[in-house]
Every structure is written in structure tokens, then in C-alpha cells.
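Researcher: We're teaching a course module on how sequence relates to structure. For the next exercise, students receive a sequence and then see the predicted structure as C-alpha cells, so they can try to spot secondary structure elements on their own. Here is the exercise chain.
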Amino acid sequence: MKRLKRDKRAVSNAIVVMLSLVLVVIIVANVVLWSYQMNQLDWEKMQEDVKITDVARAGEAWSYNASGYAPSGSTNLVSGSVSNLTSNDGVYMVFRSYASATNTNNIVTNGNVTTATDWTYTDISDPSAVVSGNYSSTVYQSASYSLYIQLVDDSANLAYTGSGKQYQAMATVSTLPTSATLYFYYRIDCGGTSASAEVANATVTITKPDTSTVTVFTTSVTFAALTTGSWIYQTINVSSVFTATGTYTLDLRGYFSTTTAKKPTLTVYYDDVWLNIVTPSEYTNEVEFTGSSNTESWMQLVWTVDSAWTISSVNVTLQLFNYTLGDYPTSENGYIAYTSGDTPNTDETKNQTITVNPTDFGDATGYWRMKIKGVKATDTQFDFKVDWIEFKVVTDSGTLFTFENAGSLTSHVVSLWIINSTNHRRYDANLFINSGEEATYIRADIRLPSTPFIAKVVTERGNMAVFARS
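Model: And here is the predicted structure for the students to work with:
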């Protein structure tokens, strides 16, 4: 029995030793495995290299075109409609300029007849040689002379008819006038021995460059007695006469007829003759375009005009109405000024990107206004050809993160932070970035604060990447 008890105790001791050895082996194995795993994690963490390359607002673009127009001044629509402004396709809406500044010139030389020069007398019809014409130094409206045409009837047995004219070729008209006005004084006298039914006529004509003649004034007086006439002033619109460039001739005429035995002297006088033509010295083309858009929160506005001019070197201003100012700006945002190119009918595209308060350029309903004006000092009328007008807004649709994984392992971004001076906010994330690749990540629920701010991300392995925007 004693021997059996000793054997049992030995077996028990052996079991204890064996169990102890097993436990030691297990513990050592776990320590080794844990150490290996930790070394593996440390190695993977060291291999991970994620960078944030950019953090910016994510935007959605909305494009709009003009839906209405209103010419300013005397600008006229020549052809086309706003439907032609939706694309840059060479199909135009065309507007014609108007004279916005003018010069007024008198094209009559020595019209005041201050000297006995510059006018020429000739008979129109004088079969009896009783009609003549010259300068009068005794009868005039203003010093020192007047022009006259006269018939002297000194026969007691005959009646006469006759006519003559004072004329001059006026200054050459090189630009068609926008208006023309003739001014003059005339006077008709009946002198001599006596009068019964003596007729004198004053007529003014203008001969055009094509040699056609236009009568712009005529009046007749029948005298029953000797009469000293009065000076009468005339203002006559002769704009319709000037239909071509070239030289025009002004005729101041007198027509006469007398009765037998009265022996009258009939005289037609002219003085202070002016013919003012108004010619353009500047042309302007101005149109306001209107349109609608959305009422979202705009983070950017890009407005574009593609157009051409039928003359070179036009001073052009493009303006976008600022509803906060209540007016069209004259500098910076909403304002573009340039001189068109040297080659007429060449399309030029102008645009401007507005990122500061872009919503200033639309009203509460999304309505917008754009004014285009071209001005040139010239006597030549020109056209404005507009091909494309675009009003493009970009709305705030969240935040766009751009990442680069320069490491050798796939990275898993699990959280991110947006930090500025007043806010420190964490967001959950779930983004895998393959090794050697770039990735973009849009978060519609994140609105970036004003700069400066910091963006920070953390990967599943515990690595961190930071991006700062100043």
C-alpha cells in the first residue's frame, strides 16, 4: 500500500509538471504571436502614406441664357432673336448703332454776304435782256451786302418775262447728314414808274450730285402798286434732299413778269443764307439683356459674352447689374471694358468669374440684367453682332476632399475633422484608397467655414493627414 501511494504521488507530480510546461508553452506562444502582430501593425502603419491634397467647396453648375432684350437710345434691332444667343455657333442677333454725337457745319460760303465774293449770277431766261443780278450795298438785312436778281421794265409798249439766279456750289458733303436746315432772308420790291399786275417770284432750289434739282422754297407776289417789301426769314428742313455724298449747288432764283406800259422794276433780294448740315461724329450701340436663374446659394458666377462688331476699334463695356448697389458697376466685379480688335466682324469672347458675393448679381427671384455698350468716334454707322450670352452659377453642394495614397498599402479613412477658430467638428468617414492612387470624396453634409481652416483625417491604422487652408 505504501508503495502504491508513493507511485500515485509521483504520477500526480508528473502531471503537474506537464501541465505547467503546457501553460508555459501557450503563454510563450501567445507572447510571440502578439509581438509578431504588433510588429506587423507597426510595419503596416509605417508603410501607410495618405495625404490630403485639396479641400474645396463642391459645386453644381447651372447655365442660363438671355430671354429678353431692350435697346437703349436709338439702337435698332436689325435681325435675329434671343434664341440665337444660346450657343456660340456664329448665328447672331444684330443691332444697329445710332448717332450719339454730331457736328453742325454751314456749307454755304459767305452766306451773310459780308463781301462781294463767292456767288455767281447767271440768267435763267432773259429773251429781252432785261434781267440782271449782282451784290447790293444799299439794301441788305445785315452788313455789308445782299444778293439781288432784278428785272427793269423801261418800255411803254412791251411786257416782259425773265428770270435769273445767284448760285454757288457748296462745300462737298462727304458724310450723309442726319439732318439739314436751310435759313435765309428774302425781300421782294416793286419800284419803277407804276404797277398794275406785276409778278415777282422768289424760288430756292438745290441741285444734287446726280444733277437732279429739288425746289425747297417758292413764293410769288403780285403788285398792283409800287411797294417796298420787308425782309422775311425762312427756316426750311431740307434733310430729305441729302441722299448721297458729293457736291450740292444752291440756287437763289428770281422770276418776273410785267404788264404793258407800267414800266416797273421788280427785285428779289436774298441775305444771311445758311445751310447747316448735322453729321455724326460718334455712334453708339447699347442693349440690355435680361434673364432668369435659380435662387440657390451661389458660390461662383461666370458670365460670358461672345460678339463681334462690323467696324474696328469699338470701345466696349460689358456690365452686370449689381442688385446690392442698385446700379451697374463701373469697375471690378460685374464690369468688363475693352477695345474691339482691328479686324471687323471677328468674334471675341469675354468672360468674368465672380467668387465674392456672386448673389449680388441676381435678385430675390434669380432675375439678372446685363448691359452691352459699344461707342466709337466715327461718322460711319456700325452694327453689333451678339452670338452667345451665358450666365452660369455654381451652387454650394458640399465639400470635395482630394486624397493621394503614396504608400504601398490600401488605406481606409475612418474619420475626419473640420477645424477653425470657432468650430471643431468630427465626422465619420468610410473611404478606401488604393496604393498609388488619388481619390475624391464628396460630403454633401459638410459646409466649409470661412478661411482659415484645417481639415484632418485619420485612417484605420491610426495615421493622420492634415490640410490647412489660409
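Model: If you want an answer key for the exercise: Residues 107-280 form a domain with the Jelly Rolls fold (CATH 2.60.120.260). The longest helix spans residues 2-47.
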